[in-house]
Design a protein that fits this description.
By secondary structure, the chain is α+β, with helices and mostly antiparallel strands. Helices cover 34% and strands 26% of the residues. Strand 10 and strand 11 form a beta hairpin. The structure holds oxa(dethia)-CoA. Oxa(dethia)-CoA binds next to helix 2, helix 6, helix 7 and strand 14.
Length: 325
Amino acid sequence: MRRYARITGTGSYLPPRRLTNQDLAADLAQRGIETSDEWIVERTGIHARHFAAPEVASSDLALEACRKALEAAGRQAQDIDLIIVATSTPDMVFPSTACILQNKLGANGCAAFDVQAVCSGFVYALTVADAMIQSGAASRALVVGAEVFSRILDFNDRTTCVLFGDGAGAVVLEASEQPGILASDLHADGKHVGILCVPGNVYGGQVLGDPLLKMDGQAVFKLAVGVLEKAARATLDKAGLTDADIDWLIPHQANIRIMQSTARKLGLSMDKVVVTVDQHGNTSAASIPLALDHGVRSGQVLPGQTVLLEGVGGGFTWGAVLLKM
Ligand code: UT7
């Protein structure tokens, strides 16, 4: 009997401070930066995003998301034997946000580490957890995406600061005889490091270089639309399924135009795509588990359905995970 890894609970959390495009445009106008609700909606599909309060860290957002995922799975923190957090905005340089989260949850003793694959982080983390569960190295994991991207935004750069938001999403992934994760496909191409990065580093007690996000949006856009279709097809092939078997596509929520393009290439109508970018903006590694939890709790994504998750982002990284709910 094959040992699968299956999602048994989902959870998510958004910090309470919500900024509409109008709110953000008014803030930016005070710095002499011009933008508008019309531009942001037309180019990205984003209407609003959430920003965490200054004292709130990624592990705090992750904690709330994990509590909800555990409750949905009917599990206690002590039942968990593995925590993987995908984040590019960790609480500290080290230790990992996963260790900090583990202590806040009271799951002390289990394996815990972070995955750094920027906006593809959740599909990377889910694939690693799946492999560990299939091999017997773990049996019950929390897989989390958590970000406070507002901390690394340059609010003098209108081409990036209107795009991102903060939040966290989590799943409980358990060993099961019932099919769960069916296949996955991960990639990276390090020659594109410069098109999406935070180039600064800590050096001798100081930040060396620019610690704010830089992005060549058009270069990222072009690469994203190409690789997302390929990753989707490769994952479906590995599972012996086709486009027609997909009940829900849950892509990284960066730009509605990239999502529409991916859906079109896969022959899916937009009513098979879970969309949260309009209300969350781009929450990097948190965007996919946030959208998955939204899909589950809104009654869109149902038990037994086939779901394709897709991530793309800095690195350049990309990948997909196909699963049965
Ligand atoms: O999460 C990782 C993955 N990231 C992504 O997937 C992001 C991918 N890229 C994108 O989503 C899009 O490229 C953006 C949304 C970032 C930009 O959209 P675009 O259609 O590629 O716009 P653009 O960069 O070609 O800019 C068009 C114009 C420019 O003005 P000119 O040169 O035509 O006069 C920009 O200066 O829009 C201007 N512009 C803005 N105007 C008002 C750029 N940002 C803004 C803004 N408000 N916030």
